[in-house]
Design goal:
262 residues, alpha/beta, Undecaprenyl pyrophosphate synthetase, 6-stranded parallel sheet, 10 helices, 6 strands, 44% helix, binds farnesyl diphosphate
Length: 262
């Protein structure tokens, strides 16, 4: 469903007229929705193991959750959603799992194009995109090109992404500019560093969510999350729902973000 501002307010307030409507949805303050939500989608393997299924089934179910969360983000007005879909470390998984994940990603890019166009969602990707199989790269390029004018939300997929690799690339790029004299070493600033990351056109995340209960960052957006609010849920990614997402947004809205000030 596409929401205009007016329609969104009506939707979020609709429990007064419709008592059966989910209360958590009504509690979301549309004026304080995080601009950028980043998610570490974890627990697909455990979800499958609990059901004595192959890990790939967990990833397939996880792809359905991606669709649901993209949709709810668009509905409430999140402007950037970054999903950690494949890390630089994930290349070390079995060739069968890597290949299944690549296949799933390609399938997602094709099947969700209509949804992205209908909902004005622009696709972006961060990471070592050149390491992805050629067919995935080409579907990615096609979808990014097709959605480039969409302006309601950016779906940012972290693919073959690792924050340390991103920071190393940034240091090399800035060092090369210092060496060739195009910038002075004293001009190096926090803004310049941000400007040399994959995320250079994207504001830092306001909220970082991790599913499946692990209390770690796993090499994700290390520079960008300096002041992000963190939320870790025990729920495994394939079981994560729009209702729980909305509860987390509500929790975020109750927090006092001080950015180091009093
Ligand atoms: C972590 O769970 C998840 C991944 C490594 C892959 C995430 C991929 C998807 C959600 C599906 C495809 C993505 C898109 C964008 C269509 P895990 O395998 O590490 O789980 P475990 O820790 O329980 O083993």
């Amino acid at each position: 469903m596409v929401f205009t501002r007016k329609r969104k307010r009506k939707f979020l307030n609709s429990d007064r007229k419709n008592p059966g409507h989910d209360l958590m949805e009504t509690a979301v303050d549309v004026k304080n929705v995080p601009t950028h939500v980043a998610i570490i989608m974890d627990g697909n393997g455990r979800w499958a193991k609990q059901r004595l299924m192959n890990r790939v089934r967990g990833h397939e179910q996880g792809a359905k959750t991606v669709r649901e969360i993209v949709t709810v983000c668009r509905e409430i007005g999140v402007q950037y959603l970054t999903l950690y879909a494949f890390s630089t470390e994930n290349w070390q998984r079995s060739p069968a799992e890597v290949s299944a994940l690549m296949h799933l990603l390609k399938k997602f890019l094709v099947s969700e194009r209509d949804l992205m166009m209908k909902n004005q969602i622009r696709l972006n990707a961060i990471g070592q995109i050149g390491r992805l199989p050629e067919d995935v790269q080409s579907e990615l390029a096609h979808t990014m090109d097709m959605t480039r004018e969409n302006s309601a939300m950016v779906l940012n997929l972290a693919l073959s992404y690792g924050s340390r690799a991103e920071l190393t690339r940034m240091v090399k790029r800035i060092a090369a500019k210092v060496r060739d004299g195009s910038i002075d070493v004293d001009a190096v600033s926090e803004d310049m560093i941000s400007d040399h990351l994959y995320t250079r056109l994207i504001p830092d995340p306001d909220l970082l969510i991790r599913t499946s209960g692990e209390m770690r960052i796993s090499n994700f957006l290390l520079w960008q999350i300096a002041y992000s609010e963190l939320f870790i849920t025990q729920t495994l990614w394939p079981d994560f729902t729009r209702d729980e997402f909305l509860q987390i947004i509500r929790n975020y809205q109750l927090r006092d973000r001080r950015f180091g000030r009093v």
